[in-house]
Each structure stands twice: as C-alpha cells, then as structure tokens.
Amino acid sequence: MATDPAATLLCEFLEAAVHLLLSIRGLYSPEVFERRRYMNCLIHWARHPGLQQYIHDVVYSLHTWITQGVVDKIALVVHNKENVAVEKFIFKLQVDLSFEGEFRLNDLEPDLRAFFMKIGASRHLLLPLPPDCSWELVAYSKQMQTTESSGDLAWIPTEIGAWAHPPLITPIKSMKSQFLNVQLYVEQPKV
Fold it and tell me: What is the DSSP letter of 126?
C-alpha cells in the first residue's frame, strides 16, 4: 500500500511549504530565512533551529492521521494582533487508501515543485497583512479517530470560527495523481 510513503512525502512537502509561506507573507524578518533547494526548486527555509523543529514536529504529528485518511485539510492561519484570522492558506488533501500500485517520487515531484513556484508568485495576488501577525497550523478532519498510534498526537479539537462574511478565495495550485490529490487556496476576508 502506498499511503505511508505518500504520507511521508506529503509531510515533507507541507513542511517546506510552511517555511515558504511564512517567508513570502513576511511573518518573520527576511534574515530569519535562508535559501535551500528542495525538489530542485529554491525555497526559503527558517534558519532558527527552534522554529525548524516546531514546524517539523507539528507537520509530522499528522502523519498517522494522513495515512488513515482522516485529514481533510491543513491550514496555515494568520491572525492579526487581536487574534482574529486575516488569512488562511488551505491545503485540501485526498489520499487514496486503496491504491496498491508502485509509489514513485518522480511521478509527483514536478507537480509538487510547481506548488512552490505558484506559492512564490502568489504574493502579488494577496492583500497586505497588518503588522504584528501570528500564525498557527490547523488540521481539519473528516472524523475524529483515536487509536493507540494517534492518541498521543499533540492536536486538540477546536472550533475555528468561520468568516463573518463569505471570504475572498484565491486558488493557487492543484494536482491530481493516482493516489494523492492536493489543492491549495487562500481565504481572505473581503474588504
């Protein structure tokens, strides 16, 4: 079954995407980031070991739930200084748990690399952020499951408030493969 390698690749991809999103949205000063090559694409990656470890731990804590098909969406939510969401980068995921074929990174790498290029270009499509923003990663599940392997994960069920008005949705990129579909879009409040 290809779900475990696909989930590992997806976690690796999401970790790199979070670093890039934090950089292009200016949530940390540019000096915090260095340029790294990932999937033959230059991306910005946080230099601070604590921030690197935090992003890694949070993203990989979802691995078990991704392989179980429980995770529907993962969002990087940006909050203003009043802790009100002002932007959500949403990764909509579909992992085919029944896929029995051979998993080949070479089949997915060009599509995933295109996400990084689109994320980099998206900065010109988005509204400017207010100063002093913070961020969090939020996982949306299809259903809540507790198993021995997922019971120790650091995710807490919460109620994320909906937008007061329908948001402005900006599609960034989508991809489909035999066993993994990913869609990235941004939600922002209408001004």
Answer: S
pLDDT in tens, 157-173: 555 556 677 888 999 99
What local confidence, expressed as pLDDT, does residue 185 receive?
96
Q: What are the structural domains, with CATH classification, of the chain?
A: 3-188 (3.30.900.10)
Q: How far apart are CA 38 and CA 42, in angstroms?
A: 6
Name the token pair of 162: 């909906």
Considering just the CA atoms, what is the radius of gyration of the chain in Å? 16
pLDDT in tens, 34-43: 999 998 899 9
User: What's phi and psi for 68, nearest 5 deg?
Assistant: -85, -5
Beta-ladder partners of 92 = 73, 183
Distances in whole angstroms, Cα of residue 121 to Cα of each of 137, 161, 167, 186:
22, 29, 21, 13
| 3-state SS assignment for residue 169 | strand
123, 44 in Cβ contact below 8 A? Answer: no
3-class DSSP state of 141: strand
pTM summary value: 0.87
Consecutive H or E run containing 3: helix 3-24
Max Cα distance, the chain (Å): 48
Taken as a whole, the chain contains a residue count of 191
Instruction: Please name the residue that has the structure tokens 């400017």.
Output: 128
